[in-house]
Amino acid sequence: MQDILIESLMTTEVKCTSPVTPLSEVVRTMRTNRHSCMVITENQKPVGIITERDIIKHFADLMQKGREYDPPAVRLMSGAPVTVATKATLLEALVIAKSNEIRHLPVIDDGGDLVGLVTQTDLVAAYFRVVETQTQAVDRAVANRTQGLLEANMKLRELMLEDPLLRMGNRRAMEIDLAHTHAAARRYRRPYSVILCDIDHFKLYNDHYGHAAGDKALQDIAAVIKQSLRKSDRVYRYGGEELLLLLPETMQEGAEDLGQRLLQAVVKRAIPHVRHSQGILTLSGGISCVDAVDAKESWNDVVERADNALYQAKSAGRNRVVSFAATDLGDQPLTEPFPTPAWIQRDPKNVDPTSL
Ligand code: GH3
Ligand code: MG
Ligand code: MG
After folding, report:
1. Most buried by CB count within 10 Å: which residue of 198, 264, 281, 329?
2. Residue 240 near ligand 1, beta carbon < 6 Å
3. C-alpha angle with apex 343: 341 to 349, nearest 5 degrees?
4. Closest ligand relative to 202 C-alpha
5. Is 164-355 a CATH 3.30.70.270 domain?
6. Residue 168: phi, psi to the nearest 5?
7. 100, 169 in Cβ contact below 8 A?
8. Which CATH superfamily is domain 6-122 in?
9. What is the enclosing helix (H) or strand (E) of 177?
């Protein structure tokens, strides 16, 4: 699986043009070549992309509002496009396309130059081929009772990107998305935030109501969280009863607002939990934010900070979120007591006393 690299899937017949090309010429070229998108480049580096959808939207706007008929490409194109490297794997490209909800991925070489294009359709088709081949390997191993069954099964599992219970990306998908988002944030000096959520006293819930009810409650909470997210936000199953939210372009305040809304939404859902002091299931959250990515910091460090913040939310009484900004290292103990109810707790050294 690791061997399937994007360079073997991409088309190199990618049509590109400059930001000043008039839209009419872009449309003509796409039509002549039967291409569904065109990449906008400057010095061979992709700086934007125009898809059929963008063109339809432009003409719809034109009809409604009487917009300029033939603007230059730069006026229609997306900002810095999401790209993949030639050496990215199929799984990486799939996660990047899915998490960003994009259908066309320009492919760049080590120098950042445009060298090809891969579509989500190409990726999905290649993925199904690989899964099919691996499934056949498992079937053969079963039929022949060969030693390779364990290995074949493991390889098949490695291909999975979705958690079957919660119908969201699993940890593997999360790691790929985080690595890509972190690298992009660093390249473009953009912020992003991570919220690590953990259900409070969930072991007691399982002990009291049974594992099947636990599964159902997990699904309910996952649904509540999904409903509270913006389109660009992503949620992954981090492990057991822990979910990780990845919030691109979101700074500390925005992440805290969302954290607060999530906790409130779970409280509002009011799933009974008689062995919890509050009588219902609650969540705790740890937030870590990246303002302009510190060159030394890896995405693992960002998640670790969120984990430390979560730990503090638990120690402080649960049903709350604690947040650390990029510069907070998370090694300062919080001073007790917390004001209650406390939906949001910031690391005290950053707290504006007037805001509490
Ligand atoms: P805390 O408030 O400190 O987080 O306490 P907790 O009981 O939630 O934490 P702990 O780590 O002790 O227990 C986590 C529990 O979550 C134990 C485990 O059985 C349950 N769990 C994890 N994954 C699943 C799952 O997929 N289904 C069900 N039903 N339970 C799960
Ligand atoms: Mg846990
Ligand atoms: Mg828990």
Report:
1. 281
2. yes
3. 105
4. 1
5. yes
6. -140, 170
7. no
8. CBS-domain (3.10.580.10)
9. helix 171-188
With contact defined as beta carbons under 8 Å apart, do 72 and 25 qualify?
no
- Residue ranges covered by each domain of the chain: 6-122, 164-355
Q: Do domains 6-122 and 164-355 have the same CATH topology?
A: no
Closest CA to ligand 1's atom 13 = 203
Q: Which two tokens stand for residue 34?
A: 């039967």
Q: Tokens at residue 324, please?
A: 């650390």
Closest CA to 289 of 240, 319, 249, 316: 249
Neighbours of 197 (CB within 10 A): 27
| E strand or H helix that includes residue 130 | helix 120-143
Compute, in angstroms, the gap from residue 312 CA to the centroid of ligand 1: 18
pTM of the shown model: 0.83
Q: Confirm or reject: Cβ of 163 under 6 Å from ligand 1.
A: no
Q: What is the pLDDT of residues 142-174, one digit of tens each?
A: 888 777 888 888 888 888 899 999 999 999 999
Could you give the 3-state DSSP secondary structure of residue 67?
coil
Distance of alpha carbon 239 from alpha carbon 170, whole angstroms = 8
Question: By C-alpha distance, which of 162, 187, 216, 178 is closest to 304?
Answer: 178
